[in-house]
Amino acid sequence: MLAGLLAEADRRLVLAESCTAGLVAASLGRVPGISRHFCGSLVTYRECAKTSWLGVPPLVLEQHTAASEAVTKLMATGTLVATPEADLAAAVTGHLGPHAPPEQDGLIYVCVAERHVTTGEISVAKLRRCRLISRDRHPRQREATLGVLALLLEHLEDRG
Fold it and tell me: For the domain bounded by 2-159, which CATH number is listed?
């Protein structure tokens, strides 16, 4: 369904994944013909990758932590800056455990950003904070992946 909506809207998607470790990209990669609308994924698991690959300032990471609304927004917009052929981006980051602070355990942030066709301006389109239901790491990664795909679907359906 996502592939069809990307094709219908003639959009090209890029991802920035942290806690899913590339699982969103792997899920999309199973769809025949997705390469026409999927540019790739930057798996920025560690803070230094978020900084050097996506331009997330170290001070923002220090003030908000890697699992935050602020960092997720910067990941989504930064991946569009890093991928000029893309016009839509999704980013995900969060704490899946086992060593997460209790208040952040199972908490993820998902963001969709877009490059406007006429102006080229990049802006945040949607942002969601989610508390995962699963308790184990692998089910949490799958649940987070579904959260990213759901937010992308919602965004494309709203625009269509």
Answer: 3.90.950.20
